[in-house]
Each structure stands twice: as structure tokens, then as C-alpha cells.
Amino acid sequence: MVKVGEQEFVFIDGGVTMYNNPAFQLFIMATVEGYNLAWLVGEKEMLLVSIGTGTDPRANAHLPPGQMNLIYNASSNPSALMFAASNEQDFLCRVFGKCLVGDPLDREIHNMIDERDLDKGFPGCKGPCDKLFTYLRYNAELSETGLERLGVGHLNPEHVQQMDSVDHIDQMRRVGQAVGKKIAIEHFDGFTT
Question: What per-residue confidence (pLDDT) applies to 15?
């Protein structure tokens, strides 16, 4: 509860809402007339950088149907919905923005990195070709495999999957440092002076 003047407000962590990854919402607020910001759009005009708090997209492949009861759903649905919401917002940014950096979203659409300007021989863009912004997404998959890919496979995934895991802040810091190694100055070409 936060009191401003005589008015009391209840603040809810955005991580448990549809805007778990608020990047696309930020684009909307920066460009939609009602917000009175009127930023210019275009892949050379706007750079949107999204830094995630980590994901754990694993599914329980060994879950028997009989265990999918009310208690199971009550305990697992919130994290599944948060993951889905974050992925959807990230996906929208990759569809409408020129994505230069980002881990794969799934096996069907992969990472949607726009390779028109890269020297890999790919001819076209992903999604509509008139992009509204340039998009960079930095995040960590906090599964055992994801941590290994980041070079921190010695860390215990359970210790870094909880955002409020203050007892393991040093391990979380190491994950952040590993993700930081994904950042390259070239990602910001045209936006830095």
C-alpha cells in the first residue's frame, strides 16, 4: 500500500500481469497519440532494449494426467501464465520490430532475428517488413541446459529461478554477468554517438 496525498494505492508486481515483459507496452505508450509522447517510429528511429529476469520454460514431461488436479493447477498455472504472457509480449516486439538479438522463442518461429542486414545469405525479414523499431532482447534461460549454454552450468537452477532468492544473490549476479556477455556494441549501431 502506498499513500500519495490522501489517496492510497495498491501496487501489484507487473511480473504477474499480462505485461510480464512490458517492452511492447512501452512502444505503445511512446507512440500512441493518447499518451502525448509521439515518438517517431521506424527501425532507424527507435531502439527498444528489453532485459528479462530469466525464464524456465520446461514442461513436466513425466506428469501423469491423474495429477493434473485443482491443487496442481493452482500451483503451476500462475507461472505458466506469466511465461506465456512474457513470451507473447516478446513475440509482438519481434514481429513489429527489427529483432537483432534474442534467444529462440520456440521451435516453430525460432528467434525471429531479422537477417536482412547480416552476412548470412538470408533474403528477407521476419513478419511485416516495414519495421516500427529495432528490438534487442537479452534474457537467460534458467534451466540446467540454459545455464550451461551461458557458461554457468555449475550453478543450481533452483537457486536462481526465484526472483526473490536473496540467499543466492551471488549466483543470480553470476547469471546476470553471463547474460551481459551477450551484449555487443554493434547491437546499438546507429543509436550511439
Answer: 64
